[in-house]
TrEMBL record, chains A, B:
Protein name: GntR family transcriptional regulator
CDD domains hit by this protein: AAT_like (cd00609), WHTH_GntR (cd07377)
GO molecular function: DNA binding; DNA-binding transcription factor activity; pyridoxal phosphate binding
Family designation: In the C-terminal section; belongs to the class-I pyridoxal-phosphate-dependent aminotransferase family.
Source species of the chain: Roseovarius indicus
Domain HTH gntR-type: 16-84
Name of the encoding gene: gabR_1
UniProt keyword terms in alphabetical order: DNA-binding, Pyridoxal phosphate, Transcription, Transcription regulation
């Protein structure tokens, strides 16, 4: 039986080459049972005419489908659905008729309803996106990343790509972190003291699971990264928020009961405060006195384009008290999901066992690609380029903010990618955000960063990591106009 | 100042092209502070002579390093470390002098010491590897995977590659799963009922976290996949093992107290039993009666090369009681870490929120690559090719086992990739494994699959997913010899 040419349609929204689209259309017809074994395909001339593509494109698609056994060609009579083609299912698919489960009872634990706000997924469609932590396509080193990914897909790296690492990491990546990344933060660590994670957030999550219980007290900075607050809340520990000042977390304000202190000394998140060396030492001394552990989230240390960064807290750690969290996702791109934990071996061992249970290991291909990108120096070039651009943007931003007399609450002395802002009294920045969206401006309201039951409504964050210098002045002008209207 | 050519050495174990190695050597020299700004590099002729490479290779490396701002060239006088080169750290790296933390006290929870055995990482160096769940490089469709990965790295897919999905998945992949994968199992699901996970193990982990508490009872098959047992143990629920028979999990043996039933109807892991349709219906009825949920791990359903698979339990589910776990890692390669969960929306919503907290989302590049590999039909070709090869290997294996009179405990009627074996009474298969390793044979002792305090020592698993047909007879012969010696 011949299949009528009229039954073939290319999906108008499909991507990829025409040849790939044709292959896909036919393969899916076979897999869904619409095209059956032994049925004859239209001639390439006929199908080409029907679809409005060149005949050679159809011929190439048929040849490919033959190679993968979807089709077979019979002498002079054309192409047929192969007898070895994959079988469609022999039963109809069904959807549950009704959901008769009482899910409010069936769920053992609830994880929805956390502090982390939902950001607009289409931030790039806003003209003035002062959003934080997203990739700026104009800065990313696409060519070299692609090159490294390709290399990591090569025959030589087959093992690294496909292997089930059980609970191990890519040795090349671990070596680079130990020999090149950590020394730049003043840290020496052995491979057994390093664990690769699915981004910094995953590193914080693993740490919270290993160190905290319902009977332990965790200190979080107030305000702090909302996802960390979700992690700590889910761990069910006692959560003690400690307000930061312009130098970050004040050691003298730590509660005696603290077991684990989560801190961001390089750039406090979200206020951008950098903890001075004196306070770092005082914090270490206070933690020792209280026998507390410290978890140092050293995110964004690379973005120190104004002044060289201070050594990490971990580098002052003489007794194995500090757990260090680093990330590559931030600077390469957030979709990468690659970070690491550095800590004493007994801790890393438990975090590794937990990781193995949760998801075994971060995909080998990603680890290997990153290790090439790092070791060939592309990462450092990227960081440098980003630093130069961010420095320029920041200058434009500061001028614009000063020009409109907008209140800066924290700007960070080393650089970073955002400025922490305070609106005039009485302005609710949640409302400000809603109004600005209609004007094409995206900001980040500050409330979700606070733990307090009645968080201050006047703070907000403006990032310059995803907006070009040229657009900053107009974006800030719109912000200023809206603020003036709301006062 | 000129840098002496003698200080340059290529790492004899380095991989990659010579040009890349030279770039790496110089970039790392700069990053570590060994080569300083303004210092002059040896001429390309001199360095080429010293390293024993061609001059053009050095010139190309220098040009690349100049492009990425590590080096600058000065007219006629050669290459110098650029003034814009990245800064080396300004402080020395230090390692904690002593670990003064009492980690037995500091750890909130322990995750080490689970049931999952450590397999030899170098399994491919054994001549007769009857190992389970590893990639056979001779079967994997490297070229097409590479092609799809490349396409997913293209400019068009930049968003999919780099975006922070927050808590969402790649819409292309979800659509493929909903429209093509699930219907083949008799399942219809909407996108909100599907969650992409880091492999099937991660899907099981998320499910256990959402559904179980210390007050709930989970049924696990006895024997069962050891990693599942680790997951259930860590969730601290009551764990009720129920012995399987030749048809899998017997519904009448389920304890009244069961809240969640974990089962593998397609191929019971590790016995390979396939649950007949009658029992599937009885299991559904029993679960309804007890108001229990069912978690169906449908791993390896694609490897049904002897007979078409039965519809999934989930396809019989009229009241939203079944949570379905699928995986691509198994058939593509385990290092991929890609699976999915299908279940009622209220459940998927909580699993998604938990996933967002634990690691946000599986990397976008991997999701997009898999969606191309699937939609272009490569996945089905691969499955078919694997099925044909596995059928051949299985035949050779069964003949060899029969020839030596070795006892088969479970072989699975639909296919699969392994046979569950029983050694004669008195033979400890842990000891058998140790002895066989010296003979180049790898088997999987059965004890870790059992929950019982005194698990039977006579079972073992032989997989044919990573050993060629040609080597199977000799491997089985060595096994038979060793068994005879141990009796």
């Amino acid at each position: 039986m011949s299949i009528p040419v009229e039954t073939f349609f290319l999906n108008p929204e499909a991507q990829g080459t025409l040849q790939a689209q044709i292959q896909q259309m036919i393969a899916q017809g076979i897999l869904s049972g619409r095209l059956r074994k032994g049925e004859k395909l239209p001639s390439s001339r006929k199908l080409a005419g029907h679809l409005g593509v060149s005949r050679i494109t159809v011929t190439l698609a048929y040849t490919e489908l033959q190679a993968s056994d979807y089709l077979e060609s019979r002498d002079r009579s054309g192409y047929f659905v192969s007898n070895n083609a994959p079988e469609p299912p022999q039963f109809a698919a069904r959807h549950p008729r009704q959901d008769s489960i009482d899910w409010s009872r069936a769920l053992g634990r609830k994880f929805t309803g956390g502090a982390t706000p939902v950001k607009p997924r289409d931030w790039w469609s806003f003209r003035y996106p002062f959003v934080y932590g997203q990739t700026d396509p104009s800065l990313f080193d696409h060519a070299n990343w692609r090159h490294c990914a390709l290399r990591a897909l090569g025959q030589k790296d087959f093992q690294a790509l496909t292997t089930d690492y059980y609970d191990n990491d890519d040795p090349q990546l671990i070596e680079f972190i130990a020999r090149h990344t950590l020394p730049r933060r003043g840290i020496l660590a052995r491979p057994e003291e390093i664990l690769v994670t699915m981004g910094a957030q995953n590193a914080l999550w693993l740490t919270a699971q290993v160190l905290l219980t319902q009977r332990r007290t965790a200190v979080a900075e107030e305000p702090c990264y909302h996802a960390l607050r979700d992690i700590l809340t889910q761990s069910r520990c006692h959560l003690a928020p400690v307000a930061v000042d312009r130098d970050g977390l004040p050691p003298e304000a730590l509660p005696e009961s603290a077991d684990v202190i989560f801190t961001t000394p390089s750039h406090q998140s979200p206020t951008n405060a950098t903890m001075p060396m004196g306070r770092r030492k005082a914090l270490m001394a206070r933690a020792r006195e209280m026998e507390a552990l410290i978890v140092e989230d050293d995110y964004e240390f690379e973005m120190s384009f104004l002044r060289a960064p201070l050594p990490a807290l971990k580098s002052l750690d003489t007794d194995g008290r500090v757990i260090y969290v680093g990330s590559f996702s931030k600077s390469i791109f957030p979709g990468l999901r690659l970070g690491y934990l550095v800590g004493p071996e007994p801790f890393i061992r438990e975090a590794r066992a937990l990781r193995a249970s949760v998801y075994r290991h971060p995909p080998g291909h990603i680890q290997r690609t990153a290790s090439y990108f790092l070791s060939l120096g592309h990462y450092d070039s990227l960081i440098r380029r980003m630093g130069q651009v961010f420095a320029r943007r920041r200058k434009v931003m500061e001028e614009a903010l000063a020009g409109h007399g907008l209140g800066v609450a924290g700007r960070g002395v080393f650089g970073g990618s955002s400025i922490w802002m305070q609106a005039p009294d009485g302005v609710d920045t949640g409302e400000l955000d809603r109004r600005l969206r209609e004007k094409g401006v995206l900001i980040e309201p500050g409330r979700p960063f606070f733990h307090a039951a009645e968080p201050p409504g006047s703070y907000y964050r403006l990032a310059y990591s995803s907006i070009s210098s040229e657009r900053i002045p107009e974006g800030i002008a719109r912000l200023a106009t809206e603020l003036a209207l709301m006062r």
